[in-house]
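ZP: hey, is the S-adenosylmethionine complex queued? I don't see it on the tracker
AM: it wasn't, my bad. submitting now with these inputs:
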Amino acid sequence: MGKNWAGKLPALHKPRQFFPAPRMSSLPEILHEQLLTAGPQPFAQVMEQALYHPEHGYYGPGPRRIGRQGDFFTSVSVGPLFGRLLAMQAVQEWQALGEPGDFTIIEQGAHDGQLAEDVLSALGDRPPRYLIVEPNPRYREAQAQRLGARVQWVGSLTELQTGPQHGFFLCNELPDAFPVHLVRWDGGRWRELYVDAAFQFVEGDFSSPEVAVEVEKLPTDLQTGHTLEINLAMLVWIRELAQAAFRGAIFIADYGLDAEEFFADTRASGTIRRYRQHQMDGKVLEDLGDCDLTTHIDFTRLIEEACRQGLKQREYDLQGRLLGRLALPWLKSLEGQGLDAATMRQFQSLTHPAFLGRSFRCLVLDKSRE
Ligand SMILES: C[S@@+](CC[C@H](N)C(=O)[O-])C[C@H]1O[C@@H](n2cnc3c(N)ncnc32)[C@H](O)[C@@H]1O
């Protein structure tokens, strides 16, 4: 994936030769200095630092709280049911592959390890190994404290190219946290959005041939000013995932849209949003580093790229419907006993259209190796 944690960004800030650089205490100050020196930069570079600067990024220093006391909810923060349903799916995958001994559940975007803990406790003594893809050592430390010896780690997907040979990959809200490029339709052509030292957007040429290639796929009959995100990191990510050695399945849950939905006039300002204390707005260049920045992912483009890389679409649906189907055998097995109130509440939150059931979508891909 195109994400890095520790300064792989181009050196925007030239070290001063005669005076020590002033000690800067906030990300806006650091970015301001960089943007003054280097000139306007693509939004993706600013977003990368806002989220992943090791000291000042929203996700850099270590896992923040998610849930009621954090800035946003996720299906994981709703309670352990999401993990329990995914554990059921993992067992089905393991059985479908003939119960191979090296079958491994692989999670990326594991944050504080809550989902891993939920999946593992639902599995009990059953065998699958659990592997977390985690590039940030501070997150790895937090996950290790919570999960102990049953889990192993790799730093990137490229480390999975030699094994394990069988697996079930899962992620919740991962590609929505990748830095995106922004492009705007000016009435006659698409232009990329850069950020200047005053933290204003300015238009410019495409920052890379990869952005230009993606823009070629966009329509040109939109209203002037229509803004869209280009998630190049998501494309790199799915290519790397397709190259991993394991045979099995991939489960991706995230909020997202189909390509056509992005072009509606009602979405003319794009889907990029910032979140703080459960408030959401479009002021994405304010309080950089202190707020989560996130986008809806383009499932059409993700599925297209996945299939191009040899993965096969098995299921793609609203989270409510897909989890409902997944839960059916378990719900039937409980007939007559009923669900306890807490589990019922979690099931409703995960599946009801008014909560997470409609805004989230789930994609299951088959991963075979010929
Ligand atoms: C929106 S949070 C979701 C956390 C968790 N999956 C949940 O559902 O509660 C996104 C997470 O993805 C992580 N992340 C972003 N890029 C990553 C990468 N390349 N590898 C692993 N984790 C990554 C961030 O650190 C953050 O913990």
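AM: back. The chain is about 35% helix and 20% strand.
ZP: great, adding it to the tracker
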